[in-house]
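Hi all, long-time lurker, first post. I run a small reading group and we've been trying to get comfortable going from sequence to structure in the token notation. Rather than ask abstract questions, I figured I'd post a concrete chain and ask someone more experienced to write out its structure so we can walk through it together at our next meeting. Sequence below, copied exactly:
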Amino acid sequence: MKKVELSELFQSLEKLGLDRESVFQDQILKKLRLQWNDIVGEVFGKQSYPKSIDGKKLTVVCRHSMVSQELEFQKSDLLQKINRITSPVLLEKIHFKTGNEFQNPRS
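-- Answer (accepted) --
Happy to help. Here is the structure in token form:
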């Protein structure tokens, strides 16, 4: 098996239309989804999930407005926990969204 340099890998991804930042964001999002219950607790973990990362903003979809509101109260603590996981990439904002689009990818 041939060893591939990281720079070669990123060049290949760019040829496919993927940039380095989007690859890192996808991986961070997957990691957050896997650890979401540890971040917010099991009760809120079943009622919410990290949907997307856009720049330095994480969007979280919640099943009910009460869940959104409670997580909003915990926003600064959650951001600290999240940034321990995402380091060295640091997120600056969390947006909680309540909606019909709730389909937890982990359930």
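A couple of things your group might point at:
Strands lie at 48-54, 57-62, 93-98.
The chain has a mean pLDDT of 86.
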